Amino acid sequence: MTVDLNSRYGLNPAHSEVVEACKIIEPCKALDMGCSNGRNALYLSQLGFNVTAVDNNPSAIAMLQQVVSTEGISNLEAQVYDINSAALTEEYGFIACTVTLMFLDPARVAAVLADMQAHTLPGGYNLVVCAMSTAELPSPMRFPFTLKAGQLSEAYQGWEIIKYNEDVGTMHNGAQLQFATLLARKK
Rounded CA gap, 52 and 83, in Å? Predict the structure, then answer.
């Protein structure tokens, strides 16, 4: 039985979509894009994934590096990375990008998604969860970027769509908003 490092270090549990995706994705080389304090990265590392966790917040990365060091975790590397640069240098079997795109430069989101796709190994997976703002349900929060209806699924044309929905969800602060959720496998 694994220790729940997230609760030990006061972190939220891993995102529910990451937990669900791991029911079908075998441990592999994984990237947690926009890892913050590392809730998903720690979860993936405990399942046996070799995880690279990136975020543009140096203090969040420093905190995660401290956990990795304290716990002696050998399969998780945390590093500062500007996601807007869309300049990944390695290929991954699983890239998770949950509740991250909405904080990026809107002019860079298409490039970031294309870069994720280009750096996913054949047969590998992308998991994306992002806030939406539609006429029916405008986002109550002013994110730099929100998806429009169908926009995320269109970005993954040519991939095998394992899961896709545009459901209303609740943020950790209680705000209700619509999210696009996609799990896709590269053919």
Answer: 13
Q: What pLDDT shows up at residue 104? A: 97
Overall domain count for the chain: 1
Three-class secondary structure assignment of 115-174: HHHHCEEEEEEEEEEEEECCCCCCCCCCCCCCECCCHHHHHCCCCEEEEEEEEEEECCCC
Contact of 120 with 95, CB cutoff 8 Å:
yes
Kindly report, residue by residue over 94-137, the tens digit of the pLDDT: 999 999 999 999 999 999 999 999 999 999 999 999 999 988 88
Q: What CATH number is associated with residue 51?
A: 3.40.50.150
Domain range for 120 is 5-185
Whole-angstrom distance, CA of residue 115 vs CA of residue 166: 23
Tokens of 155: 């970005």
Q: What is the b/e burial string over 9-20, where b = at least 16 CB atoms within 10 angstroms of the residue's CB?
A: bebeebbebbee
